Every structure is written in structure tokens, then in C-alpha cells.
Amino acid sequence: MYQFSGKLKTLSIALMILGLLGVGYGFYAAPKTVEEAKEILAEQHHDGHGDTHVTPTKESNDTHAKETHKEANHNDKHAEHAFHQMQNRPWAAFFVALMFFLGVTLLVLAFYAIQRVAQAGWSIVLFRVMEAITANLHYVSIIMLMFLIATFMHMNHLFPWMAEGVFDPTSENFDPIVNGKKWWLNTPGWLMRSIFYLLVWNAYRFIIRKGSIAQENGDLKLHKRNYNISVVFLFLFMITETMMSWDWIMGFDPHWFSTLFGWYVLATFLVSALTVIAFVTIYLRSKGYLPFVNDSHIHDLAKYMFGFSVFWTYLWFSQFMLIWYANIPEETTYFLARFNDYKFLFLAMVVMNFVFPILLLINSEFKSIPWFVILGGIVILAGHYIDVFVMIMPGTVGAQWYFGLPEIGSILFFLGLFIFATFSAFAKANPLAKGNPFLQESEEYHYYNIEHRGEESHH
Fold first, then answer.
1. Burial class of 370 by CB neighbour count within 10 A (0 to 12, 13 to 18, 19+)
2. Residue 164: is it exposed, middle or buried by C-beta count within 10 angstroms (0-12/13-18/19+)?
3. 166: Cβ–Cβ under 8 A, 6 or more apart, which residues?
4. Among candidates 81, 98, 86, which has minimal Cα distance to 29?
5. How far is Cα 395 from Cα 406, in angstroms, rounded to an integer?
């Protein structure tokens, strides 16, 4: 049996503490007044201004006075808008990391359910690893629920459609486009749907974990029951994941819409989830706790990482190309915001999420080499974190973004929580899912054997 070591536990707690300090600093450093925001903007634009001297006349003085007054009004509105974006930044930085870790954990759970429904034989020896990772779902779901309630109570202003007067035709903040979507974009419905998503996901994880451990007695009825529960979950998952991506991510850009956005979000979390499964598996195998996991299992995980990197790129290109080609204003505004203020990140993630994994993992032999998989996986995870960052930040903080302590602190906190949840859960059950009828097939599984290939070529 695996024992959650004191060093690893200490590391996880240290990461959470450091992370909370970084998050706390983000809230402390955010401007408290519009005047503070103006000072920050002045510092940002200081180097861009020069002095021009002309000889004034009466007419030019009058014109200059009018222009100065208009410019002052414009600057005040701009400063107020920037002030709200700066206040949003620590909230948004925390939400990006929360969304990333929740999404990855959820897709590990979905991939696990797919293995059960597909009656896959190769992956049974990885079941306890996937179950351990999904223990993190309970923790991040509680944090997400608290975040959603805080948003519902207007403790932050991340979602523009929640602003005061958006649905009031008499208000200067009235938005006719968002008003046309109020049947969906309303705070009571939004919160109730969100709670439903979290309940469905956590209920399945709780039930299937108990069912998986109970199945160690070899009862085929339990195996069938776990299969049926997984079928129901996958049906609900596809609906809730799509709606979640609308409510929690697309809601930051309420004027924009994309019919394949749910699939796009699914792809970015799925390839990240497979990478995390590979990482945890490689780590535990290196420590001697997964002796039944062979290179073929690692190879198949890397093969999925490779395949779904291509799938993500297909969806990224399809969404971008069709919107660019159609050139419809309500669609192109989404990519304009990202090209204007996030161009480097927007283009860099294509290299990190497609070009690098393709070049590194296209060779079949490399997929069985752990350090190659880890190298590719680090870039994949960083690239898909940037993907989530670029999905969320433009609609919440606009141009007032940069990568600093709030972002780093949020990542460290959720990484520490992930380590604590995963390895404490792995220590609570047998590392091998005994009683599964496909276990022997999984233990003897060999997809690719270099020695046999060499022998065949020799003969």
C-alpha cells in the first residue's frame, strides 16, 4: 500500500500557503479608488507622451478648451473602466487557475467513465490513479461554489451581463443584445445551473469510487452497475460540460457566441487531463507503487496526448478560420480583443499546444520514454493554461493584464491542493483495481515491443 509521505504532504501545504499569500497580495495591491487607477495609467503611458509647443491664438485657445474638456471626460470614463478591470484582476487570476484545475480534474473523471463504458482492457491498471486524481474534484468544487456565490452577491464584477441596469431599458447601461439573452443570462438561473453541474459531477465521483472499491470482491453485478452508472454520467456530462462552458467562460463575452465552444473547452481540458494522468502514473511507477504498469500503458497515454493535441488544433483553427472568413462584427470582436492585447499569448499557445507535441510525440518510440512524455507534457499543460487564460482575461481585465504574483499564487495554491487531494486519496485504496474482469488483460497488455520488432526484422 502506498503511504502519503511527510515530505510530499509538507510540499503540498507549503505550496498552498505560498499560493494564498500571492493571491492575498493581488487583492491588497489592486487599486482602491479611481484616482489610484489614474496614477497607474499615467505611469503606464508616461513614456508614450511628448511635449509639443505652438503659439496660441484666441480661436485656438477656445478650440483647445473644448477639446481639453472632451478629453478630460473621455479620460475619466477610461480611468473608471480601467479601475474596474484592475479590481477584477486578482479575481480573474484566481478564477483562471480554479477553472483550469477543475476542468482538468473533471475530464480525468470523464476519461475514466469512458474507459468503463468502452469496456477497455488496457487501462484497468490506471483506474486507481484516475480515481485518486478525481478526489481533487470535491475540493475545487467547494471553492468554485464559494466563488460562484460571491459572484452572485456582486462581490466581484467579472461578468458584464451582471452589471446594474443591463436589462433595464431606462438605464444608460442598458444592453439590447444581452437583454435578448436574458432567458439564459440571469443570475438565479445561472447559479442554479452551476450548482446542478457540480452536484452531478461530484455525485458520480463519490458513487463510482465506492463502487470501484466494492468491486474488489469480483462481483460481476457490481461491474455491470458501475458500467450503467458511467453511461448515465457520460450522457449528463456532455450536456453539463457544454452548458458550463457557456455559463462560466463564454459569459465573460456575452455579445459573442460560437456553436463549437463547448467542444473547444472540452478539448483543452481533455488533453491536459491525459497529461496529468501520465505525470502521476510515471511518478508513482518510478517510486515502485505501480509495478504492473508497463511502457505500453505510458505509450497509450502519450498517444492520446498526441491525438487530442491535433483535435484541439482542429477546433481552434475551425473556430478562428470560419469567424475570420465570415467577418461578422459580433463574431470577430472576440478575436480582435485577443489580437489587440494578447497577440503573443494567443499565437504562442498554438505552438505550445500543437507544434511542440507533434514534433516530440509523433515518433512511436518516444511515446514510451517517460522523460520525453514529461517534457512534452510540461509544455502542453503550460500551453493549455495559457489557453484558459486567454479565454477568460480579455473579457474581465482587458488590456490591464500581466503575469504576476496573483497568477503565480493561484497556480501554486491549486497545485498544492491537487497534490494533497490526489496522493492522500491514492493511499486510501489498493493501487490495483482487483475484481475487474479485464484486469488480467490490462496487466499483460503490450502495444508496442521494440525487442520483438527487432527480432522480426532480423528473421
1. middle
2. exposed
3. 160, 173, 174, 175, 178, 179
4. 86
5. 18
239-252 pLDDT, tens digit each: 999 999 999 999 99
Distance CA 337, CA 394 (A): 6
268, three cell numbers: 483543452
- Burial bucket for residue 170 (CB in 10 Å: 0-12, 13-18, 19+): exposed
Do residues 271 and 420 make contact, with C-beta atoms less than 8 angstroms apart? no
Q: How many residues does the chain have?
A: 459
3-state secondary structure of 177: helix
Q: How many CB atoms lie within 10 A of CB 432?
A: 20
Question: Amino acid identity, residue 269?
Answer: F
Give the three-class secondary structure for 181.
coil
What b-and-e string marks burial along 223-241, b requiring 16 or more CB atoms within 10 Å of the CB? Answer: bebbeebbeebeeebeebb
Element (H, E) at 287: none
CA distance readout (Å), 402 to 32, 269, 327, 398, 408:
19, 23, 29, 10, 11
Amino acid (one-letter) located at 84: H
393-442 pLDDT, tens digit each: 999 998 888 899 999 999 999 999 999 999 999 999 999 998 889 999 99
One-letter amino acid at 324 equals: W
